[in-house]
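Moderator note: this is an archived Q&A kept for reference. The question asked for a predicted structure of one protein chain; the sequence and the answer are reproduced below.
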Amino acid sequence: MLGYAAADVINLITPADISDPQELLARAAKLSAELDTPIAPGFEALVFKASRGIEDIYELTYIRKDGSRFPAVVSVTALRDDLGGIIGYLLIGTDNTARKQIEAEQMQLGQRLRDQQFYTRSLFEANIDALMTTDPAGIITDVNKQMEALTGCTRGELIGAPFKNYFTDPERAEASIKLVLSKNKVTNYELTARDRDGRETMVSYNATTFYDRDRRLQGMFAAARDITERKLAEAQILNLALHDSLTGLPNRRLLNDRLVQAMTASKRNANHGALIFLDLDNFKPLNDTHGHHVGDLLLIEVAQRICGCVRAVDDIARFGGDEFVVILRELGKDNAEATREAGGVAEKVRAILDKPYVLKVKSEGNTATSVEHHCSSSIGVSMFLDHEVSAEQVIKWADQAMYQAKEAGGNQVRFFDA
């Protein structure tokens, strides 16, 4: 794919040396801004996310030995030893040019199948997707090797069997056949295939009808592409977009959605709710003295302690930095009682966060040392009953109350009072 012999590259170059230098500069700059840390525009830019345990898939241009270029999709995984230390990286580069050419060939094959009763067996077998043909009733008439691998069945076992039998939702699979027959094609129809051992694979399913030379309907031609990794990546991307990568708590974006939901429910059932906004006292000296990695350990424990103070119906989020937010739902219809309950939870959080932190820090040689730190919190609370004000306003009120607690010396709870 690159034109090099093994001796040309092993122990001599990094993947950065065969990548477009301008794209490396752009990637390093983008990551530096995104992650708020300086990243060099070389090999570090290619593996930085993977080194932090983040699955990384990106596009760049590779340069062959002869100087020609081609687009590639690269996935990077950090390789670790039994203790979690990084011992290397696995980079898998896929040539997008060839993939586009294969997709174009598949489209041409689909067009020919609408007019022809036969097809080229070698191309059918060489296809990267699981291919099959069925009669108009959905009975399989032919498959390729990829379909055998997808189902765990031989070609002989598959031919003559109902297409729908090899999916977790047979009714949905059967509905796709009816859709193809009525619309002549179906595109990106998602199904979950199940092999004979119970292994499930998510596939994107495309199908079209095909005819003989006299335009008599012969059945359906279908291609199923494995999208399991893509779906997992999409789920992970969505999770990262809505959750804090350090603590696993909802982030600011998801917090706003949850607060709007809580306020809407409050208006509907006339139950009071509360928002607790807290900021850690004496957190910066820990970072300054021991480094951000130790500060991260404390933030993780803070999140765990807060989780132990609230109910399952409540929400906790990391607002940013050393700020956390708790949404208390369904505190009842009586304002005084709801306020007392919110104050009790806030005080419980304040007390648990005021206890000393003993943080286990691994150093070089994998030896562990303990860092003890005292870090209290300043807490502001705002009550809400309906959806007449915005979620942003409720957060602002609690933030103002939190600053009153901090200005009063910290390690206190203050309620917002207009």
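Archived answer notes: The mean pLDDT is 88.
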